[in-house]
Amino acid sequence: MQRRVLAAFLAVCLLLSLTPVTALAEEDVLSSPDRYTDVSLEDAVAYLRGLRLTMAFVGTNVWDAHHGVTTSTPAKMHYKRQLMASADKTFLLADSSKYAKFSPWLVAGVERFDHIITDGGLPAEAQAALHNAGTSLRVAD
């Protein structure tokens, strides 16, 4: 069986995949749109709408249990929302140093992710808040 994965961190997708995988990286297109003049937000969202993904790995640089996953631009918000809607399972990849920070554009509440993967630097209070929000938290060593 071949799986399709759309991810901000291509290396993570390849490491986590135990079966053949198609990996599509999205972060550079949204972070540096001037480098990709032929790709519009509408095209990117339409492309995602046409995909059926097994897993989506969503990266973020701001998140917490109360505000959820937020982002700095409406383009990133729409893109990440469609990415999640196109996937059977969603994984949030989130650095603990970015916890308790937020931006104005809401992507989703943390409970919308099937799993949250973070590093061991997340304080115990934050882990408890995430568990209370109904998340499946996985801490990487």
Low-confidence stretches: 6-15, 17-21
Structural class, by secondary structure, is alpha/beta
Q: Estimate the global geometry from the Cα principal axes.
A: globular
Please give the number of β-strands: 9
Radius of gyration: 15 Å
Proportion of beta-strand residues: 25-35%
Strand line-up of the largest beta sheet: 2-1-3-6-8-9
The main sheet comes to: 6 strands, parallel
Gap between N and C termini, in Å? Answer: 30 Å
What is the H/E string? EHEHHEEEHEEEHE
Q: How many H/I helical runs? A: 5
Q: Kindly state the percentage of residues in helix.
A: 25-40%
How would you describe this structure to a colleague?
The protein is an alpha/beta fold and 141 residues long. Helix content is 30%, strand content 32%. It contains five helices and nine strands. A hairpin with a 3-residue loop joins strand 4 (63-64) and strand 5. Helix 3 runs parallel beside helix 4. The radius of gyration is 15 Å and the shape is globular.
